[in-house]
Amino acid sequence: MDMQFYNIHNNHHSTLFIMFILRRRVTCLRFNGYPAIALRTYASNTLVRNSSYNLRENNCKNIHRSAVLSIQASGDEKNNLNTTSIKSEVIRNVLPYIRLMRVDRPIGSFLLFWPCGWSIALSANAGCWPDLYMLSLFATGAFIMRGAGCTINDLWDRNIDKKVERTRNRPLACGDISQLDAVIFLSAQLSFGLLILIQLNWESILLGASSLGLVVTYPLMKRITYWPQLVLGMAFNWGALLGWCAVHGTVDWSACLPLYLSGICWTIIYDTIYAHQDKKDDLQIGVKSTALRFGDDTKVWLSAFTVAMLSGLTLVGFFCDQTLPYYASLSLISSLNIDNPTDCAKKFISNHQVGLILFVGIVLGTLMKPNDSSDIILTQKSDTPTNFDNTTVKNFVPLPTNKM
């Protein structure tokens, strides 16, 4: 659309007026799909070659530069908006899966890892540090399999979670993730878990794979029995057997069995405390737990399990020839008030300290164990022939010696 310009005698006022008109035309052209080069040409031809504007060349260049910068700024703003929208879309799609794995609540991964760490540290030779490669491998596996366990649990409990105040916002319960997507995601999690497991020896692969049944059936136990925490303890403390087997290729039952049973008692303690948060909802929907089973006698029951746990760990120290730091850690654990169901969430999280204290006690206790040289002495003595039968003496031929 052609526009008519009036004769303006003041150059300053002319410049402002022309800038306003030019920006209007450049904007119109840009929205009609003209490239930046065409706009530059248009601005140059409009201002420089049209003598009726009576503008100096430097004023034309300034107006031209202002128009180009306006176009570039608009393009950059559009690119930034596109990038921001892509990031927002990615976060919106990924966040439900992060919540499904409970990445924002890592306490579960720690509680799954500590029995593995205890077993690996106990299997170390006297005066030696635990195998760091094994510790890192099991730490990664604990993170992956804890997430897989949460996915399995939420698949089973998606309808129950909708009725519980604490769990109704979980991704499957509130519809952020479909059941099919959760199954596909679980397949990926189990595949990564298998990739970790095959790094171990064959005995450990078979032993580790055998725990999958406990992981899958645990969510069903709360519908059947008041002792689902017992099944959870059997699944969560499987690493007490697996860690030793991964290092030595076999399980030392004299050390690993009391460690495993102590871990089960520990799990019953902290998960019963955790279950006290949902007692009212569990009663309404018919879900069972040890919190409901113990009732008003919860503190008595948990005290008994604490005694059983510490007794088993003392037996572990005896069979593994542990030293003072180990027993000092047991003394420190016994002084913690871990069996008090009041303030449930904080007490549950504080049980992470129990696992860490025991792990440090095992490591320091193993480092302080004296190196056992009896095997070397026995080997040296057996190499010296002390008893010979007649056949050996008759057939004995001394080696010639070179005299210098």
From TrEMBL:
An annotated Gene Ontology molecular function: 4-hydroxybenzoate polyprenyltransferase activity
Any one GO biological process: isoprenoid biosynthetic process
Taxonomic superkingdom: Eukaryota
Swiss-Prot/TrEMBL keywords: Isoprene biosynthesis, Membrane, Mitochondrion, Mitochondrion inner membrane, Transferase, Transit peptide, Transmembrane, Transmembrane helix, Ubiquinone biosynthesis
Catalytic activity: all-trans-decaprenyl diphosphate + 4-hydroxybenzoate = 4-hydroxy-3-(all-trans-decaprenyl)benzoate + diphosphate; an all-trans-polyprenyl diphosphate + 4-hydroxybenzoate = a 4-hydroxy-3-(all-trans-polyprenyl)benzoate + diphosphate; all-trans-nonaprenyl diphosphate + 4-hydroxybenzoate = 4-hydroxy-3-(all-trans-nonaprenyl)benzoate + diphosphate
Coarse class of the protein's main subcellular location: membrane
Localization in the cell: Membrane; Mitochondrion inner membrane
Mode of membrane association: Multi-pass membrane protein
Top EC category: transferase
Family, as annotated: Belongs to the UbiA prenyltransferase family.
Record function comment: Catalyzes the prenylation of para-hydroxybenzoate (PHB) with an all-trans polyprenyl group. Mediates the second step in the final reaction sequence of coenzyme Q (CoQ) biosynthesis, which is the condensation of the polyisoprenoid side chain with PHB, generating the first membrane-bound Q intermediate.
PANTHER family per UniProt: 4-HYDROXYBENZOATE POLYPRENYLTRANSFERASE, MITOCHONDRIAL, PRENYLTRANSFERASES
Name of protein: 4-hydroxybenzoate polyprenyltransferase, mitochondrial
Lineage: Eukaryota, Metazoa, Ecdysozoa, Arthropoda, Hexapoda
